[in-house]
Here is the input.
Amino acid sequence: MSAKQRFDVVVVGAGPAGACAAAAAAENGVSVLLLEEHAEVGVPLACAEGLSRSTIQGYLEVQPGWVARSLSGSIVRSPRGREFTIEYPNVGWVMDRKVFDPALAERAQQRGAVVKLSCRATGIEDNEISVEENGKTVRYQWKYLIGADGVATHVGSWMDIDTRLGPAQIEICAQYLLSNIMIDADRAYLIFGRKYAPGGYAWIFPKSATSANVGLGLSPVKTKEKPKTLLDHWVMEEFPAAKIEERVFSGVPAKRLKRFSGSNFCLVGDAARFTDPLSGAGIANAIKSGTIAGRNAARVIRGQKHDLENEIKKEILDELDWHYRVRNVYLRLDDEKFEDIFRVAEKIFHGSIITDINTRRLVKQILLYSPHLLKVGFRLLF
Ligand SMILES: Cc1cc2nc3c(=O)[nH]c(=O)nc-3n(C[C@H](O)[C@H](O)[C@H](O)COP(=O)(O)OP(=O)(O)OC[C@H]3O[C@@H](n4cnc5c(N)ncnc54)[C@H](O)[C@@H]3O)c2cc1C
Here is the structure.
């Protein structure tokens, strides 16, 4: 066994959350080790790569080279196949995470973090972390530990945090990167209904005019069907000539943890279950929580007052809690009720250029227009 090395902050996992945590801590003058179990950052990847501009404002300047496609709105499809378009210029991007994720890790390195690839964290004992590195077990000492190890996190359980996901606390997903298809390359498609994705939704996130991430997420409490079976049916129906370039089978957490931190550690990103329970989007909250955690870890090391919990609450959890309430209502909707909501949403969005979507205002508008939902909706939501 080789000699122990010491770092102020050790970050496990070099996805967006870990890379942003490492960059923020290093920038604030403390020594940082960023560990990634895979040989390359961003490979393998389970993501449709959608990122909305407003969600990361003030946290990250997106560079043109990180983007596969800029989006100017969405096409929304109802269970019965009605469609409307939301015109939302510059709403965001379909990222190229095979470029984006390594760029974030490189940014952490440029700010002073030591980045180690092919290094899998395997456990902790007191303030030491064990890492499998070049066929050996190496131990590193840390003063502050950041768990950014994604949906299948182990750091959480090492720190006595119950991150396990029951069937009601996960959306299970299947996605293909398809080529040889024809789509509107400027818009994300969101498709609802039992046939496609019970308790979730299906998506098409364009990477070009002829290729896209096409997938769906479903709630296992709403169906016994496997996401792959539903995806195969849909792809055969909608894109019969498509070629499957890549396949993803994974899950998105939808669990609100009671606790995500302690005096000398915290979880961030998917490990902390900061994924949006309505949309399944987690890149933005990974970037935000990582940045906030890295900054606060440096304050802890320097013995300064830190404000991790409050910052995370204000920047992430308040919105997430609201979306959990909306998800509760969403999971009770059948296709008929959804069709009603869809008609109202169509009226709200039709012919308007959108510059901001406020989900609280939108939900209130929809409830007021939908007599079926008014009673149950208001009781559950407000
Ligand atoms: C099918 C699907 C589609 C999605 N689409 C979108 C989307 O369009 N937009 C969006 O915003 N979000 C989307 N998400 C969610 C998004 O991918 C995640 O929220 C995001 O990647 C979370 O970032 P992270 O840094 O927390 O975790 P990850 O990106 O998962 O990174 C965790 C890293 O930790 C590493 N690691 C794990 N264990 C160890 C260990 N023991 N030692 C060392 N390294 C370790 C992993 O290799 C990985 O690199 C989707 C998810 C799925 C499953």
